[in-house]
Amino acid sequence: MYEWMVTARHYEERLQEEYLEGKQPAFDISAGPIPGELHLAAGHEAAAAGVCAHLRDDDVVTATHRPHHVAIAKGVDLKRMTAEIFGRRTGLCKGKGGHMHLFDPDVNFACSGIIAEGCPPAVGAAMAAKKRNTDGVAVSFVGEGAIDQGGFLESLNLAAVHDLPVVFVIEDNDWAISMPKERVTDVSDGSQRAAGFDMPGVRIDYDDAVAVFEAAEEAVMRARAGNGPSLVEVQVHRRMGHFMGDAEAYRPEDDVERHQRLDSVERLADDLRSSDVSDEELAAIRERAHERVEEAIAWAKDQPEPDPAEVTEDVFVDGGQRPRAADAPAGGDD
Ligand SMILES: Cc1ncc(C[n+]2csc(CCOP(=O)(O)OP(=O)(O)O)c2C)c(N)n1
Ligand SMILES: [Mg+2]
């Protein structure tokens, strides 16, 4: 878990540097090697590590617009993910998806920029696992900003009614862009939503990877054993702006300070030290993580750009030719 968390933190620090290249002095979002928005997850790492530690490659994970830490913990190919973020042809989605739309069928990982969009596909994956009689599990990560969305609530309902092997994980960082959660949500503890669907709900009040690991173990094992869905909320911290370039004029300074004070990566390192893991061993893990990140970024930057002629390919399953109504099978709806 420490290695995943350190990898994610360093990865995002390096992405941040690459992202800012060419975008200043006046912030030009389309300039530089990573054009478009970039949402970083520094402060969220413990949630991903504690949950994904219980998952196998064949389990399904859907994540959000802030996906890197989850993707790393799920085992997404770091090189192809980085190429995707840099918009290169060898990226996971041939450079057409960008950082919010990573998709890796090798380890069953997907994410989306649409809030709560990952919940219904996770329920679908869980239904497939149940019908196929496997012990596969699906996990859907959402932010606390998603818990009033229809997609989230309907997914909880379907998962409960059909007793599906899903774990819903809320990463509560107190903010949805510039909106503090207490202004839009009636519960301060999102795991209370579980009660309305008669499923277990638990909240971890601080982003401690070990505490998340323990709570997630129960939820994942329950799903794997065929005993239905659960909801786990983790208090995480948004150490940075909503996206790169966010001036955060709406955010009180003491809130930023509070979110930065506790660092889950440092906390886990302290735990490991007190369990007799040496400083040398921790340093070796960090070094390995840094090397992997540098290698992925160097590889990605060396990859070819997509050919503009391919822009309509892969948009529809047949490679760009949308069937006309006349060609559609009987009863088909264009
Ligand atoms: C359906 C939908 N509505 C609105 C948006 C715009 N939007 C992007 S991020 C975001 C806030 C999300 O907050 P939260 O779910 O708490 O995740 P966080 O950014 O805090 O990780 C919103 C409203 C969107 N992407 N999708
Ligand atoms: Mg949030």
Characterize the structure shown.
Helix 1 (2-20) crosses helix 2 and helix 1 crosses helix 3 (68-74). The chain starts with a helix and ends in a 33-residue tail after the last helix. It has a single domain (2-327), classed as Rossmann fold (3-Layer(aba) Sandwich), CATH 3.40.50. Helices cover 38% and strands 11% of the residues. The protein has helices spanning 2-20, 45-52, 68-74, 78-85, 119-131, 150-161, 209-224, 253-261, 264-274, 279-301; strands at residues 60-63, 103-104, 109-111, 138-143, 166-172, 175-176, 179-180, 201-204, 230-235. The longest helix is centred in the C-terminal third of the chain and has 23 residues, at 279-301. Strand 8 (201-204), helix 7 and strand 9 (230-235) form a beta-alpha-beta unit. A seven-stranded mixed sheet has the order 2-3-1-4-5-9-8, sandwiched between helices. A two-stranded antiparallel ribbon has the order 6-7. The chain contains ten helices and nine strands. With 334 residues, it is of the alpha/beta class. The chain binds thiamine diphosphate and magnesium ion. Residues 143-145, 173, 175-176 line the site of magnesium ion. Keywords: Oxidoreductase, Thiamine pyrophosphate. Residues 32-308 form the Dehydrogenase E1 component domain. Its cofactor is thiamine diphosphate. Residues 297-334 are annotated as: Disordered. It comes from Halomarina ordinaria.
Individual helix count: 10
- The main sheet orders its strands as 2-3-1-4-5-9-8
Radius of gyration: 20 Å
Distance between the termini: 47 Å
Shape: globular
Q: Could you say what the CATH topology is called?
A: Rossmann fold
The bound ligands are: thiamine diphosphate, magnesium ion
**From the helix content, strand content and strand pairing, which structural class follows?**
alpha/beta
User: Main beta sheet: strand number and arrangement?
Assistant: 7 strands, mixed
